[in-house]
Amino acid sequence: MENLKTIFDHYNFSHDDVKRLKSILPLMEDYADDCVRFIHNHIRHLGNKDVSRLLDGHPQLLNYHREWLLDMFRGVFDKNYFNHLKRIGKVHTNEDVRPHYVNVSVNAVRAYIIDLLTEKIEDRDLRTSLKESVNKVLDINLDIVTSSYVEEEIQTLSAGYKIKTLLITFAEKFSSVMNLVLVLALIVITLGVVGLFVSDLVNLVRGNNISHGIITVLGSLLILWVMIELMNTEIAHLKGGKFNISVFIGVALVTFIRDLMINALKHDETSFQALSAYYPIGVIFILGIVYWLVVRAEGRRQ
Predict the structure, then answer these.
(1) How far apart are CA 182 and CA 165, in angstroms?
(2) Comparing C-alpha atoms, which of 86, 59, 62, 82 is closest to residue 72?
(3) Domains identified in the chain and CATH numbers
(4) Cα 259 to Cα 149: distance, rounded to the nearest angstrom
(5) Which end of the chain is more exposed for a tag (fewer CB within 10 A), N or C?
């Protein structure tokens, strides 16, 4: 199955679509229960006793289907959303619900929402753009769910695919654990940097060399800023965002800047050699160019 970003690109699903969907969340919340009842009644009228028995035997499906419907309008389309749709497909496979009934159900949802927008949205241009966004998000949901059907069927037939799936599942879980370990480590290190900053600040107040104290405090403040950036990047990554390599270049850049500031105070004019002075400056200049190029490339990707 394609990853979520590729699927969004193929369906031309943009940030504008997300904004439009979020704008009608209050409307969908008011009509979510009615929409779900409409879907269930529509499915029952298809005449399949097994599917009707499944709906009658699991009353909690009303709430599950309501949450699935509203999630499309909450605007959070991250890795968790992608995995949730995959699980929906696997559950339907395990319950022997054929993809045909999923397609029919999504078509019923589409008809209901289109009729609702036609009735409630007066602006013609806005109504048209909303319908386009709704069609896109429903097609994406259907794509992911039905693809899960195919994967499950292949998995039942292929031993090699089972091994591959187990390895991928283990790797994903291991990666999630390592991400949590990384977050905990960043929290501990950030607390240590805060302690260092406070210590340097106390030394500045108590010391006689104000210039040295200010430079030291600024250096600690730079490190604290870097740690905050690393934390924000990792949190965004856990939420399904892109991993920006520019943050790590920024860490190296700030490290050399801090060393240059502190080393400049440790040497007097007679011992401060030209090489030791210009070497960090050259590295900072090169890192600055690399940082600018990487940030520019990341901006184009976004």
Answers:
(1) 25
(2) 82
(3) 4-157 (1.10.490.10), 169-297 (no CATH)
(4) 56
(5) C
